[in-house]
Amino acid sequence: MTPATAENTVKCVVWDLDDTLWDGTLLEGDELHVPDANRTLVRVLDEHGILQSVASRNEPGPAEDRLRGFGLDKYFLHPQLGWSAKSASLRTLLEVLNISADSVLFVDDSEFERAEVARELPEVRCVTREKLHELVAGGRVLPRQVTADAARRREMYQAEDRRRGHEETFQGPAEEFLSSLGMTLRVRDATEGDLDRAAELTRRTHQLNTTGITFDRDELAELVRDPGHWVIVAELDDRFGTYGTIGLAVLSTGPEWTIRLLLMSCRVMGRNVGTALIAALARTAAAHGARTVAHFRPTDRNRQMLVTYRFAGFAVASRSEDRIVLTMPDDRIPVVPRYVRLVTEDTAAVLSGPTQGVTR
Amino acid sequence: MTAQNAPTDEEIVAVVREFITRLSGHPDIEDDWPLISGGVLDSIAAVQMVDFVERTFHVEVTDEDLELLNFDSVRGLAALVTRRVAA
């Protein structure tokens, strides 16, 4: 097997149950016992943002009961319990979790099962539990840095599953659906702890991205310290849980505040929260006596963000070959959609504007 | 484009209404209903509307055209198409 390297990060550990997660065989009526080392490892992996699941040949009902009884059920996403081949269970997990085979560690005491998976899915790393403990202890599994979003990754998956169930069964107009979510958008100054996630967002976000400027961690750290810039991050929650840190904006401040970059993760596509984020920025600028300017660099994928700026009230002020400059007219205060509760650190600025209805 | 083969205003309204009906899943859309501000559609729908009218009527929707007014009702979108077809 290949050890985990930077390019070969472990994103998910899939556990067999009998004589792997617990000692004993459920079907044989053994007294089952989860070794403390396993219990601790499950928690440590979870806290480091590594997803976990189960692939076990067992009756689903009794196996789930035992996991619950041990207080471990919440840690495992989409447990695969039944009689299909382990490779089939793993294929299902790769699909529902949307991860690649080379990011998975499969833990099983049975040499037969490990060989079956290795044959069918050669990129999956197959290990015994002893080997798993050894790899973790040797620093080959856990990431060196854990962002706040990574630490709650499993909860975010679970929230998204519940949310999707709601979305699939919801009938009614778009706004009623959005209202039913109970969304809260939190906009705050970026801090040291946000920089890894913020840099990741600039690299990964293409569709809901106004200019496509990428910043690495150090550049962002410098902008956060620079009094001539304002860097904010946005987090979205709804009644199903958190979406994590989903938005980033970089503004240069002064007599005019210019939004050099504004992006939102595609996790929040269709939630219309871009409008609320723009409103938060423009209102804060207005509270500081500045008008808001926005840059937009068109790509073949980001027109949605131009629509968002234009619908929020920005007018096209000038354009060059690859850049459009938009300005917010002095008499416009951008509107926060009524289905989003906006929370900012600069509450005075936000309270000065309406939550719905165009103001002139 | 000559007067003979240019679509009439009524034809434009009918095509736009049919598209909005399909997009919203709402069977009896009225021509002056506020679609986005009224919460029938979300703003992502505006991008789909732009793609649709550009393909269907072979017109270009400019960045200046991306006003809420032009996308907030069947009538508004049809009027935009009429202006662009005539241009």
Automatic annotation (TrEMBL), chain A:
Residues 185-331 form the N-acetyltransferase domain. This is HAD-IIIC family phosphatase. Gene3D superfamilies: 3.40.630.30, HAD superfamily/HAD-like.
UniProtKB/TrEMBL annotation, chain B:
Residues 7-85 form the Carrier domain. Gene3D superfamilies: ACP-like (1.10.1200.10). Pfam families: PP-binding. InterPro entries: ACP-like_sf, PP-bd_ACP. This is Carrier domain-containing protein.
